[in-house]
Amino acid sequence: MRAMDVMTSKVITVDEDAIVPAVAKLMAEHAISAVPVVDKNNRVIGMVSEGDLLHRAETGTERRRSWWLEMVSSTNQLAGDYIKSHSGRVKDVMTRDVLSVTEETPVADIAVLLETNRIKRVPVLRDGKIVGIVSRANLVRALAMTINEPASGIEADDRAIRDKLLAELKAQKWAEVSPANITVKDGVVHLWSSYLSEQEKRALVVAAENGPGVRRVEDHMRPVPAYLLA
Fold first, then answer.
1. 174 DSSP 8-state letter
2. Which 3-state string (H, E, C) describes 193-217?
3. How far, in Å, CA of 74 to CA of 68, rounded?
4. Dihedral through CA 90, CA 91, CA 97, CA 98, nearest 10?
5. Rounded to an integer, what distance in angstroms lies between the CA atom of residue 219 and that of residue 171?
């Protein structure tokens, strides 16, 4: 499997002039731990994570150094801490050195990247522009779909099944499914998306079952949480 097989394609992004509280709200509403910062050409220039918002003046959690550590810290360090905890703009709090992968990066390499750098997600770039994001949750789903499924070397066929199903759903007005929520392994289609109604859920299953080459459909779907519908 590669990044393109497991990534979330609909990526929530912000620009560097976004307001910090608004970005925090966005992350909370969508239950994500980080959001890429992009320029007007959709090129990634930074990342805002939970860690970047951990020490903030608004919540009284700004970094407080002990008196002796403050004495040995440079004025640049202290000024930097102040900017990060008090500035209202994303450009002052974001992490600028962003690790990334391409669509062709093997998921095994992505797992190592996430683990060794202690990060939860990594953007997927094509010619420097963001086309997706791979999170730890995406990798867990990829692992879950392999249970009890013998290796068969038909990755190309699986990709064809997935591409045809995605094309079918894209043509349907009722279907709003992220590509990351559909995975295929050895002819078995795994559906992970949320659904608004039982009719929508059943329609997704039917669309998957009708795909040529599909051996079975595994339904892992969950209803959209009630609080998101309020």
1. T
2. CEECCHHHHHHHHHHHHCCCCCCEE
3. 12
4. 40
5. 21
- Helix H or strand E segment including 124: strand 121-126
Reported as a single tens digit per residue, the pLDDT across 13-55 is 999 999 998 998 988 888 888 899 999 988 999 999 887 888 7
Cβ neighbors of 200 (< 8 A, separation 6 or more) are 174, 175
Separation in Å, CA 199 to CA 23, 140, 195: 34, 28, 9
List, for residues 191-226, the tens digit of each pLDDT value: 988 888 899 999 999 999 999 889 999 999 888 776
Q: How many whole angstroms separate alpha carbon 210 and alpha carbon 25?
A: 40
68/73 Cα distance (integer angstroms): 9
Query: Which domains occur in the chain, in start order?
Result: 1-136 (3.10.580.10), 145-229 (3.30.1340)
Q: 219 vs 90, 91, 191, CA distance in Å?
A: 39, 41, 5
Query: Which residue shows structure tokens 């249970």?
Result: 147
Which amino acid is residue 173, in one-letter code? K
In whole angstroms, how far apart are CA 163 and each of 140, 157, 211, 212, 216?
21, 10, 10, 11, 16
Under 8 Å between Cβ of 218 and 189: yes
